[in-house]
Amino acid sequence: MGTYVFKLPDVGEGIAQAEIVAWHVEVGDTVREDQHLVDVMTDKATVEIGSPVAGRIQARSGEAGDMASVGAQLGSIETGAGDGQESGKPSPVVKPSPVIPPPAPAVQARVPAQAPSPPPAPTGVGQEPPAPQAKATASPAVRARAAALGLDLGALPGSGPYGQVRHEDLDRWLVARATAVPTPVRARREGVEEVRVIGLRRRIAERMQEAVRRIPHFAYVEEVDVTALEALRKDLNETRPESSARVTLLPFLIRALAAALLEHPGLNAHFDDEAGIIRRHASMDVGIATQTPRGLLVPVIRHAEALDVFGLASEIVRLSEAARSGKSNREELTGSTITVTSLGALGGLAATPIINPPEVAIIGVNKIVERPVFRDGQVVAAKLMNLSSSFDHRVIDGFDAAAFIQSVRLGLESPGRLLVG
């Protein structure tokens, strides 16, 4: 018998440390060569570490949320070979996996795919998750989310190929649990739940804290009449080919941004505050802030200035679906030059979005409401929406920010121009 010590390998890109996100084996488990052992996270990318040898897990070093340096011991495996194996064997298998976690689409309601059969619904408040039935197949992001929910994946019928459990299956189980037996509103509740901030959630917390600490935010809110835009959008969707993506408000907003940035190029920029340099980008690479089950991700539309509303609609759907299914690559989640954020129907009347550094502007979309307005001395119904935006006041003056948003507003209130511009 021998002992093989497996260490955190070099995961590339000059990374010196990685965070342990989730273990997929326990001490005492028998593993085969290349079997998935642990997920580690660097920046926003998750990396799967596979077993370099077959044997039995003898020890694990570190738990979810702990940081490990490259070359640090992650654990040891008891092998059937003779001598101990500290070296001379290949390093643990490193498998870059999709960036975690798969988000809900940024521009439309999430509609789960139909599963072969619904998961069993709980029958009472506080009921334990269903008992495991078999070893389930699932992506690392799904496993991590299921672990956070305290749910054994073997209890769910998967809707993916060969029974793979997907996020949609977890969603259905959550809906079933929430609707099985309503909790009395006035029922007395006790206890404190502790949730450790790890993985992507910790990265987001650190990034937001740094953004607010370093960037003096200047907020600006403007009301936009989108009555004509909504009428045009409805007509486009009713006459579009079935193969075309449904056009939402976001493609029109991005077209309006592209037009406004021709007059105000300083808003499509990065600010390197350490070097004291503003880098104005010719390409408008728009980040679409997208809420996911575990935190915010920002898929990026490359060269958005070159796409019409139909091309933008298709690209938004593609990026959203890729992110939702956990297939977004690093290129699709980095490098935005300006960000758009929207909570859709939950958007509220106004917000104060936080800038995504090193960018200098973020544009927030609020919900559309119908209100009476005066037009030509008559009271008529209009569909109104606020744009809530934030700007880096170190490099963007208030006047320039206001002028930029006014240009965007004029574009949205004359949407026909956005189709031909």
Task: Provide the CATH topology of the largest domain.
Answer: Chloramphenicol Acetyltransferase
CATH architecture of the largest domain: 2-Layer Sandwich
The value of Rg in angstroms is 25 Å
Number of domains: 3
| Proportion of helical residues | 10-25%
Terminal Cα separation, in Å?
72 Å
How many distinct beta strands?
18
- Order of helix and strand elements from N to C terminus: EEEEEEEEEHHHEHHEEEEEHEEEHH
**Computed structural class:** alpha+beta
Low-confidence runs (pLDDT<50, min 5 residues)? 83-88, 98-133
Instruction: Report the major sheet.
Output: 7 strands, mixed
Which CATH top level class of the largest domain fits? Alpha Beta
Question: Taking all residues together, what is the mean pLDDT?
Answer: 82
Portion in beta strands: 25-35%
Q: How many helices does DSSP assign?
A: 8
Tell me the name of the CATH homologous superfamily of the largest domain. Answer: Chloramphenicol acetyltransferase-like domain
Shape, please?
Answer: globular
Descriptive notes:
By secondary structure, this protein is of the alpha+beta class. It has 3 domains: 2-96, OB fold (Dihydrolipoamide Acetyltransferase, E2P), CATH 2.40.50.100; 104-182, no CATH class; 200-420, 2-Layer Sandwich (Chloramphenicol Acetyltransferase), CATH 3.30.559. 25% of the residues lie in helices and 27% in strands. The chain contains 8 helices and 18 strands. It has helices at residues 140-149, 167-180, 199-214, 227-239, 249-263, 309-324, 398-413, 416-420; strands at residues 2-7, 17-23, 30-31, 36-42, 45-50, 55-60, 67-69, 73-79, 93-96, 217-225, 269-272, 277-280, 286-292, 295-297, 300-301, 338-342, 361-375, 378-392. Strands 10, 13, 14, 15, 16, 17 and 18 form a 7-stranded mixed beta sheet that branches. A 5-stranded antiparallel beta sheet has the order 7-2-4-5-9. A 4-stranded antiparallel beta sheet has the order 1-8-6-3, with no helix packed on it. Strand 4 and strand 5 form a beta hairpin. Helix 5 (249-263) packs across helix 6 and helix 5 (249-263) crosses helix 7 (398-413). It is globular and about 90 Å long. The protein starts with a strand and ends with a helix. Mean pLDDT is 82; it is low at 83-88 and 98-133.
